């Protein structure tokens, strides 16, 4: 059941990404990238849920966490394009990219140092499931991603408040969607911790 649901979602994201890319609109490329960036976390989640072996579960976690870094990069790029904002200072871009690059590197080093996460076997409804146990590197990953997500929220709040009403409504719709996404991610994290 989960496989079919995640499969349909992946196909839908790919179709929407192609449509966005071909739309010819100024934000088409960044919207397409954002939609494509959502596919790795979806696939990672599917692998985590469906896997009954340790190595495959770890692979699913890697795909999910690295995918979320990709999502944050794509989300920020889309936000800047959608809100017609350019980097005012080069160091802003350097900080964001450094956060993401450091996070990707430290996650890729996890098989050697096991500093970001480990998995442990538990039974769920009589079936083996590998629960992720977050460690210090996972805290850094969450801080990096949530910092970028918070910056994006601040940009949309600013644009919603400061723009004329005809424009502020379009910003508020996306802002609401992002808040719901953030709440879903927070719920996911706490659900993983409580398992």
What does this structure look like?
It is a single chain. By secondary structure, the chain is mostly helical. The protein has one domain: Rhopdopsin 7-helix transmembrane proteins, CATH 1.20.1070.10. It is built from eight helices and two strands. It has a two-stranded antiparallel sheet. Strand 1 and strand 2 form a beta hairpin. The longest helix has 30 residues. The radius of gyration is 18 Å and the shape is globular. The relative contact order is 0.09. The mean pLDDT is 88.
The top level CATH class name:
Mainly Alpha
The structure class reads mainly alpha
Helix content: over 70%
Task: Let me know the CATH homologous superfamily.
Answer: Rhodopsin 7-helix transmembrane proteins
Intertermini distance? 21 Å
Element-by-element helix/strand order: HHHHHHEEHH
Q: Give the uncertain stretches in residue-range form.
A: none
Give me the CATH fold name: Rhopdopsin 7-helix transmembrane proteins
Please identify, by name, the CATH architecture: Up-down Bundle
Spatial extent as radius of gyration: 18 Å
Query: Biggest sheet: strands, sense, closure?
Result: 2 strands, antiparallel
The share of residues in extended strands comes to 5-15%
**Gross geometry:** globular
Task: Trace the largest sheet across and list its strands.
Answer: 1-2
Tell me the domain tally.
1
- Overall mean confidence score, pLDDT: 88
SSE layout:
Layout: H1 2-22, H2 28-37, H3 39-50, H4 54-82, H5 90-108, H6 110-113, E1 117-124, E2 127-134, H7 136-162, H8 165-194
Antiparallel strand pairs: 1-2
């Amino acid at each position: 059941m989960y496989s079919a649901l995640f499969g349909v979602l992946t196909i839908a994201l790919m179709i929407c990404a192609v449509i966005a890319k071909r739309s010819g609109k100024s934000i088409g490329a960044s919207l397409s990238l954002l939609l494509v960036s959502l596919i790795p976390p979806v696939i990672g989640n599917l692998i985590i849920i469906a896997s009954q072996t340790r190595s495959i579960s770890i692979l699913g976690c890697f795909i999910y966490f690295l995918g979320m870094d990709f999502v944050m990069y794509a989300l920020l790029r889309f936000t800047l394009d959608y809100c017609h904002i350019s980097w005012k200072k080069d160091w802003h871009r350097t900080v964001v990219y450094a956060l993401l690059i450091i996070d990707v590197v430290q996650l890729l080093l996890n098989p050697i140092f096991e500093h970001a996460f480990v998995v442990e076997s538990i039974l769920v409804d009589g079936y083996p499931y590998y629960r992720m146990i977050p460690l210090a590197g996972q805290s850094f990953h969450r801080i990096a991603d949530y910092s970028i997500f918070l910056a994006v929220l601040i940009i949309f709040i600013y644009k919603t408040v400061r723009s004329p009403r005809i424009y502020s409504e379009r910003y508020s719709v996306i802002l609401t969607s992002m808040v719901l996404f953030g709440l879903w991610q927070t719920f996911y994290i706490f659900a993983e911790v409580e398992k």
